[in-house]
Design a protein that fits this description.
Layout: E1 7-8, E2 11-14, H1 18-30, E3 36-40, E4 50-54, H2 60-66, E5 72-74, E6 77-81, E7 84-88, E8 92-96, H3 97-108, E9 112-114, E10 118-122, E11 125-128, E12 133-135, E13 138-141, E14 151-165, E15 175-178, E16 187-194, E17 199-208, H4 215-228, E18 233-250, H5 252-257, E19 262-263, H6 279-290, H7 297-314, H8 316-328, H9 335-341, H10 346-354, H11 359-366, H12 374-379
Parallel strand pairs: 1-12, 2-3, 2-13, 3-9, 6-15, 13-19
Antiparallel strand pairs: 4-8, 5-8, 6-7, 10-11, 11-12, 14-17, 14-18, 15-16, 16-17
């Protein structure tokens, strides 16, 4: 039997997650004549996720084109720690995966190929699990995180439940961190987004040394937290979970030498090192790729690799703070590092999350009584201290 003829496209994006979806949106907005196909193994684009960001994380221009994806907006947020509570007025935004699927698939139409597995990738095409072939001069790998042996990582892992309550919860803004809870498996906090008068997204989050996610234990802890807040759960509407990388150290050049495709998103080490969030980096990269004069696998890879290496080097300070959090602070006392940080000015907090901190900001974060033992902090100043076989002195 003859094989079916190959389908031709200008760009094929493998994986229908955040990075691929944003690239597709920008390509179709700025270069509508292009045929852009997204291939996703699941039935919908975006999986089961909620991507959030501070409005100050992105430029006004990016905020404008992200607007159709945003389902929930708040004018501020709260943080809660054992010794400190605070409300901040930085606007906060959330993109749920069902809205993401609706918008991206609406733009792509029949070029959103869902429920389709991939057998192999090459620079000039993709072989699908069912034997069909897609040919394109530009193939981009956006299939989410992959093993990264050249990077030293901690983990932010979470289980989230969207809860329908029996009575109104009374919250008017998100609680981005509630660390007044028992500190389990590293730094633990509860994250709560009020979605309606009676509906909440509640995530139990751990900054941990290991990747293992005990869904049953975290579900029980969410139920206990809801009860402690006086929230009677009528129904668990849906669940989402994640294990996000937190960067401590690594060899970014070796990481890219090991890459054999034009990879984007978490595979490209493009995420905020402290939070693991990738939306701002993904949005900026989507703009850059859409502006490339020539779209090929090689030109996209060169663009992404250059951006990834630049961001990695710019964010060395963030990795230092992560080493202090993961390696210098005892697991049950890691919350003190964040509690102290949230006593700083709102402007500094905004610049910190957006990756725009100044030299003065860096000094201000570290000045004063250190939240970790000095000897332990000194031991992790160098990235080599946590690399395999590195200098431990």
């Amino acid at each position: 039997m003859a094989s079916p003829p190959a389908t031709r496209a200008d760009v094929v994006l493998v994986g229908g997650g955040l990075a691929s979806g944003l690239i597709a949106l920008r390509l179709k907005a700025l270069r509508p004549a292009l045929t852009v196909i997204v291939v996703e193994k699941d039935a919908t684009l975006g999986g089961r996720h909620t991507w959030s960001h501070f409005a100050s994380d992105v430029s006004e221009e990016i905020g404008a084109w992200l607007a159709p994806l945003i389902a929930h907006r708040w004018d501020g947020y709260e943080v809660r720690f054992p010794g400190h509570r605070r409300a901040l007025t930085t606007p906060y935004r959330a993109i749920p995966s069902d809205r993401f699927h609706e918008v991206v698939s609406g733009v792509l139409g029949s070029d959103a190929w869902t429920g389709v597995g991939v057998a192999a990738l090459a620079d000039d095409g993709v072989t699908l699990a069912d034997g069909r072939v897609l040919e394109a001069p530009c193939v981009i790998d956006g299939r989410g995180p992959a093993p990264a042996p050249h990077l030293v990582l901690g983990w932010q892992k979470f289980l989230g439940q969207e809860l329908e309550l029996a009575a109104p919860h009374g919250l008017t803004r998100p609680i981005v961190m509630d660390a007044t809870v028992d500190q389990l498996d590293g730094y633990r906090f509860l994250y709560t987004l009020p979605l309606s008068a009676t509906r909440l997204l509640v995530e139990d989050t751990r900054y941990s040394d290991g990747e293992a996610l005990d869904r049953a234990a975290l579900a029980a802890d969410i139920a206990a937290y809801a009860a402690a807040q006086g929230w009677a759960i009528k129904a668990v509407v849906r669940e989402e979970d994640g294990v996000l990388p937190i960067a401590l150290a690594g060899d970014i050049d070796a990481h890219w030498r090991a890459a054999d495709t034009a990879q984007v998103g978490l595979r490209a080490a493009l995420f905020q090192p402290i939070t693991g969030y990738s939306l701002p980096d993904a949005a900026r990269l989507a703009d850059e790729i859409a502006a490339l004069p020539l779209l090929t696998t090689a030109t996209v890879r060169a663009c992404v690799e250059a951006r990834s290496k630049q961001r990695w080097r710019e964010r060395a300070y963030y990795r230092l703070l992560n080493r202090m959090l993961f390696k210098a602070a005892t697991p049950g006392r890691r919350f003190i590092v964040l509690e102290r940080f949230y006593r700083l000015s709102q402007g500094l907090v905004e610049r910190f999350y957006a990756g725009r901190i100044t030299l003065a900001d860096k000094a201000r974060i570290l000045i004063g009584k250190p939240p970790v033992p000095i000897a332990a902090a000194m031991a992790v100043l160098s990235e080599r201290s946590v690399l395999p076989g590195g200098d431990k002195a």
